[in-house]
Amino acid sequence: MTSLTIVHPDDWHIHLRDGAALNRTVNDVATWARRAVVMPNLSPPVKTVADATSYHKRIMNALTDGVQFEPLITLYLTDSTSEQDILDAAASDIVCGVKLYPAGATTNSAAGVTALDSLKPTLAAMEASDLPLLIHGEVTDPEVDVFDRERLFIERTLAPLSEAFPQLRIILEHITTADAVDFVNGAREGIAATITPQHLLYDRNDMLVGGIRPHLFCLPILKRRDHKEALRKAATSGNPRFFIGTDSAPHTRETKETDCGCAGCYSAHAAIPLYAEVFEEENALDRLEGFTSLFGADFYQRPRNQGTMTLIREETSVPNELTFGDSVVVPLRAGASVRWRVGARS
Ligand code: DOR
Ligand code: ZN
Asked: 331 preceded by cis ω (within 30°)?
């Protein structure tokens, strides 16, 4: 196959950051996504509809004139998010969900939730107003090995939560394990998961054998190869519970290549070509469209995109680094190539 035309994709999980970074992040994702679900882990976080409204404005100001792109903002769940915050969010056109970060789990999560039990009224308000909950699914218990944190979160927190709020729509973000695949496959209705390109393409050997590759370090951390295989099977299965969410998250070279490096991979420059490689390798290119362009819209109860995108099968090189204000970001596949590129869009 030399080209493939699909319904125009979206990205259901991305970090755009703020300030000068927006000029790059927003315009990179807008080269291939019509909509993106934007994470709220700024500092300070996006906690209210007022915060979301001003962030939305800053994103739109950074977008090149004439480009069609709709950011869907998420609110950051904290120990003090109120029922009124939820009612306001549910009534807002620009807020599409609320993100749960267990406090300390990842980048800018210090303001995250420390006691989910005390948020029952808030979660009940989300369930009643049908506002989706997006979850970073890792326990933060220091006793738990970093490779087990997702599996134990599902067992200890997610499984009981999904039963306690049976109508609450939940997206388990950036899943990394066969355990997460099994949970989502067997879960009640209203439970879905996003999958990143890095978790489909790489495993922990790629990150750690022969030397540490800090640009592959993200959270949840890359797991063993058999988990990657389970994720590839889920993504290419055609099951609408699994859909695109790149988790593209820029960190500058100096904050990754240091004695305590940041977590995050930047993929907004080439996300669709990277996913296309996986689907091609799995002989499932006919299922790419569902994953990138249909299932997420359906789950979020938003219209499917009208336009199309054509992918061309052509080896395309990725630069060693991308300019980010005064610094640079080393993107996924830096200095190498991807087998597809984005062609015509309508
Ligand atoms: O690797 C990650 N980077 N995982 C996250 O959960 C957050 C993200 C970021 O904000 O950099
Ligand atoms: Zn993320």
From this structure: no
- The one-letter amino acid code at 284 reads A
The confidence band for 1, taking pLDDT boundaries of 50, 70 and 90, is confident
* CA–CA dist 90, 223 (Å, integer): 36
Q: Is 10 a catalytic residue?
A: no
Asked if residue 151 lies in contact with residue 110, where contact means CB atoms within 8 angstroms, the answer is no
d(CA 306, CA 273): 21
pLDDT tens digits along 125-172:
999 999 999 999 999 999 999 999 999 999 999 999 999 999 999 999
Residue whose CA is at the smallest distance from ligand 1 atom 3: 264
Give the residue, out of 41, 146, 196, with the most ligand 1 atoms within 8 A of its beta carbon, to mutate for a pocket test: 41
Which residues lie below 8 Å from residue 58, measured CB to CB, with a gap of 6+?
18, 22
Distances (CA, A) of 152 to 84, 97, 102, 268, 294: 31, 24, 13, 30, 30
CA distance 139 to 114: 11
Phi, psi of 48 (to 5 degrees): -130, 170
Cβ-proximal residues to 80 (8 Å cutoff; 6+ apart), any chain:
none
From the CA of 60, how far away is ligand 2's center (Å)? 20
CA dihedral (196, 198, 201, 205) positive or negative: negative
Ligand 1 site, residue 292, Cβ cutoff 6 A: no
Model-wide pTM > 0.90: yes
In this structure, the residue with its CA closest to atom 2 of ligand 1 is 264
Among the bound ligands, name the one nearest to the CA of residue 255: 1
Any atom of ligand 1 within 6 Å of the Cβ of 136: yes
Pairwise CA distance, residues 266 & 218, whole Å: 10
Rounded to an integer, the average pLDDT of 239-245 is 99
CA dist 109 and 15 (Å) reads 13
- The predicted pLDDT at position 37 comes to 99
Q: What is the mean pLDDT of residues 222-240?
A: 98
